[in-house]
Specification:
By secondary structure, the chain is of the alpha/beta class. It contains 16 helices and 24 strands. The chain folds into two domains: 253 residues, 3-Layer(aba) Sandwich (Rossmann fold); 192 residues, Class I glutamine amidotransferase (GATase) domain (Rossmann fold), CATH 3.40.50. The radius of gyration is 23 Å and the shape is globular.
């Protein structure tokens, strides 16, 4: 069985996912067969593996850091919120059903067996498993049935590193308070704390570190500087939604619907010089972009209603009237069609008119489409005719069936596809940007193709280098050796 180590955080967005990815990369560099693991994840950004299983995007990112194929055993339980009160539950890559929060906690005991089976199976295939927790491990009302934080650490008999975010303030209180709420066995399991996202001179922090160690009786395993990294984001806590690049030569506006999912689809555009990607959540933010994108969503019909109520649907129609391009991915593709029908109440229930800019109609069915997709794009005309026949690699994940004739369709300058990751191929992203520049009468000959995979691997190496310098790696290796 594999050696284990677990990364917990005092709160969401403390840096658990990034520290886990960095440790994975270090161990990979040092010759270990290493894999990530998160027992239970809640996120709308998911991924389809080569064998058609669904898993959380954070563990996909960590698997990339390990330079291994994503495997749904790395994330046996995935929760995808469908409303404020309920989530679709994915177990070992397949849909289990939609449960309210109350019903989910009633069934938690059943999920423990699935988690243990996945962990044991993964552990048999690797030398080291780097585990990540979720949210805060000190939610005292939830600790009894915990499956993902200290409950998982106990199940795997793993030493724990506790991460706190100094950038948001109160890091000493959050670390000390979390330790205070652990029982004695949990306190003994914590072998080091990490202060993350520090800006400034560490020597100024030193007196506080020694005082913290005196209070919690756990060593500080390192102070990680604030690093400007570009890694795939998991959920709505992403900093990408705050991006504003009004000065960009090409302005792409992605509509930020309330249930936006898989927004990593648009990261490749951000890597191209002169291109700005903005996430627009209200009418006054929209402006006059060169391209409007309707992204994936966990509830297409509910988000289409929001689009109408916010005034953004009318703005999209005005954009279309100017013959400016619109691109829909997955749920956004469904919205652009003629009608949406949900006879079984899979998402919202009932029937609804679509935006009406593409000819297809969508019927939501009980069975989710999950498939890895590779091939060539269907022939299209209009501004993005250059996409015709381009090779793509991505995946499909949706409940609706639209009966569209082709994997990419268009009516004029309105385009739609079910393929997530369609822009990851550098030639496809480049073709879109060249067409937008050409439409503006600007020079497009210098648009450079971008190797997304190579760029990501460079980012993981930068992360690993930063963590090696910041962390007490002798301590971490001693924990792995028991």
């Amino acid at each position: 069985m594999a050696k284990t180590i677990m990364v917990l955080g005092t709160c969401s967005n403390a840096g658990k996912s990034v520290v886990t990815a960095g440790l994975c990369r270090i161990l990979k560099q040092d010759g270990y067969r290493v894999a990530p693991f998160k027992a239970q994840n809640m996120a709308l950004n998911s991924f389809i593996t080569k064998d058609g299983m669904e898993m959380g995007r954070a563990q996909v990112m960590q698997a990339e850091a390990c330079q291994i194929e994503p495997d749904c055993r790395m994330n046996p339980i995935l929760l995808k919120p469908t409303s404020d009160q309920g989530s679709q539950v994915i177990i070992n890559g397949e849909v289990h059903g939609t449960l309210s929060a109350k019903d989910f906690y009633k069934e938690k005991g059943k999920f423990r067996e699935h988690i243990k089976e996945a962990f044991d199976s993964l552990s048999a295939d690797y030398d080291v498993i780097v585990m990540e927790g979720a949210g805060s491990p000190a939610e005292i009302n939830l600790k009894e049935d915990d499956l993902v934080n200290m409950g998982m650490a106990k199940m795997a008999d793993a030493p724990v590193l506790l991460v706190g975010d100094i950038d948001r303030g109160g890091v000493f209180a959050s670390l000390a308070g979390t330790m205070l709420l652990f029982d004695e066995a949990e306190k003994r399991r914590v072998k080091g704390v990490i202060i993350n996202k520090f800006r400034g001179d560490v020597s100024i922090l030193e007196p506080g570190l020694r005082m913290l160690e005196d209070i919690i009786h756990v060593p500080v395993a390192g102070v990680v500087p604030y690093m400007q990294l570009d890694l795939d984001d998991e959920d709505s806590l992403t900093d990408r939604f705050a991006n504003r690049k009004a000065e960009a030569l090409v302005d792409i506006a992605v509509i930020r619907t309330p249930r936006i999912s898989n927004f990593t689809d648009f990261n490749p555009f951000e890597y191209i010089e002169g291109v700005g990607v903005r996430y627009v959540g209200s009418l006054h933010e929209l402006g006059n972009p060169d391209l409007i994108v309707l992204p994936g969503t966990k509830n297409t019909m509910a988000d289409l209603l929001w689009l109408r109520q916010s005034g953004l649907e009318a703005a999209i129609l005005k954009h279309h009237a100017k013959n400016k391009p619109i691109f829909g991915i997955c749920g956004g593709f469904q919205m652009l069609g003629q009608t949406l029908s949900d006879p079984n109440g899979v998402e919202h229930g009932g029937d609804m008119a679509g935006i009406g800019l593409l000819p297809h109609s969508t019927v939501f069915e009980d069975e989710k489409v999950r498939t890895n997709a590779t091939g060539v794009l269907s022939a299209v005309d209009g501004m993005f005719a250059g996409l015709s026949g381009k090779t793509y690699q991505g995946y499909e994940i949706h409940m609706g069936v639209s009966g569209a004739d082709g994997n990419l369709i268009n009516e004029g300058n309105v385009y739609g596809t079910y393929i997530h990751g369609v822009f990851d191929r550098e030639e496809i992203a480049k073709t879109v940007i060249e067409a937008l520049l050409r439409e503006k009468g600007m020079d497009f000959t210098d648009v450079k193709a971008f190797d997304v995979d190579a760029y990501k691997q460079t980012q993981y190496d930068i992360l690993a280098g930063g963590l090696r310098e910041a962390l007490d790696m002798n301590l971490i290796y001693s924990l792995l050796e028991g």
